[in-house]
Structures are given as C-alpha cells and as structure tokens.
Amino acid sequence: MSGHSKWSKIKRAKGATDAKRSKIFSKIIKEIQIAVKEGGPNEDGNPRLRLAIQNSKGVNMPKENVQRAINKASSEGANIQPVTFEGYGPGGIGIFIECLTDNNNRTVSNIRSIFNKRGGNLGTNGSLSFLFERKGVITVPKGKFDPDEFQLEIIDAGVDEVEDEGDAFVLTCSFENFSRVRKKLEEMKIEAQNAELQRIPNDYKKLDVDTALKVLRMTDDFEEDDDVQNVYHNLEMTDDIIKSMG
C-alpha cells in the first residue's frame, strides 16, 4: 500500500472517531459557499456545488445545513477566497496547504506561525509544483454490486488505481478523468462517500519515527486551523510510524 493510501485510510478512521464532525461540516459549508459564489445556487448547472453536496451526504450533514449555506451565499455573497501555501516541514518533507478564507492576512499569519513553531519553513507559491500532482480520489462504500464487475467498468471509465480497503474502494484517476469517472458512477447508480481532487506526491520521503512524528504534529496543527481545507505531504507512512501513532 502506498504512503498516500495508508495516510488516506488513517485520516478516514480518524474522521470517524475523533469528534471532528464540526470541522468536517465547516469545510464543506465553505466549499458550498464558494461554489455558489462561482457558479450560482443551481445544483444542476454547477458541478462544483453538486460535488460539495454529494460530499455532504457522505458525512451525513443535515439537509438544512446545506440549504442554509446555499441561501447565505446567494443572499449575502460569500466573501471567501481560495489560497494555497507551500513549504517544508522537519526532515525536508514537502507540505502543501489549501485554504478558504475571508481574511488573507489572518490566514498567512497563522500558517507562517505553525511553520515556525514546528521547525519548518514557509516557501513561495510554485516551489513544490514538481512534487505534487492533482488527481481525483473517490471513496465508494461497498454495496450491492459485484466487486469484480465494478472494478472492470470503473477502470474502463478512466480510473488508474483501485484500492480495496475492506469496507470501501478508493479510486484514483487523473485530473482530466475526474468528471468522467463521477459520471460513470452516477450511471451505475453508485453513490460515492467522498469525491475530491487531491494533491498526490510524485515521490515519497522516508524519515525516522521521531522526525516523522514532528511532521505529523505540524500537519495536525494546520488541520486544526479553521481556514485550512486540506493538508498534503510526501512523508512515507511506514508501519513503524503508524504503530507509533497508537
């Protein structure tokens, strides 16, 4: 299992057990608001909004929360902007952070503070463009469908990798095939638990356990910030590191 797949599985488990539902809801609400700002409140004509609503269902967000976010963005306008940060953590691990913020100065200050506090360095935008590739990652709970037939059909639709995680399949595809794969799932009447574009490392770096844990404490700090949507890194998640996380 790749470092990316191991980390994705750990984060899925944490999301289910760490009482982080409010943080997850907050992320999706921001995504809904910026989707409405960019493409309007009509789900049928706004692919980004449709995807955000689909992901809200995957975490059992109440429909009234979704509608409230749409109404607020429609009536007031969502003063939220996307911004990204790139830098290095302990051991030279690359860190890529995606944010949605209504106050860029606050977000820059918070991100820089965490880098400094945890022994990292905030870099310039584009400095890690060689390290990460944007890909579609879709989690599909196993259901009443034939697993072998499902994998054959979904690979034909453009999926590059299918990871069997026991209770779900995690599908990885190119940025270009993301919409095509989602459309194929809709045609198969299979509802994804989560579908998003992620930044997948082209190369992973191994560290000793102590240094790796410093990196993970840094990523935890970033993820606790209200403006942060996603944090990516190229740390190889070895078995020893996973065991040390308890």
| DSSP helical segment count | 9
Rough shape? globular
CATH architecture of the largest domain: 2-Layer Sandwich
Strand runs, count: 8
CATH class of the largest domain: Alpha Beta
Structural class label: alpha+beta
Q: What oligomeric arrangement do these chains adopt? A: single chain
Distance between the termini: 19 Å
Brief summary:
This protein has helices spanning 3-17, 21-39, 47-58, 63-76, 104-117, 147-156, 178-187, 209-224, 239-244, and strands at 81-88, 94-101, 121-122, 132-141, 159-164, 168-174, 194-201, 228-233. With 246 residues, the protein is an alpha+beta fold.
Topology (elements, then pairings):
Blueprint: H1 3-17, H2 21-39, H3 47-58, H4 63-76, E1 81-88, E2 94-101, H5 104-117, E3 121-122, E4 132-141, H6 147-156, E5 159-164, E6 168-174, H7 178-187, E7 194-201, H8 209-224, E8 228-233, H9 239-244
Antiparallel strand pairs: 1-2, 1-3, 2-8, 4-6, 4-7, 5-6
Helix pairs in contact: 2-3, 2-4
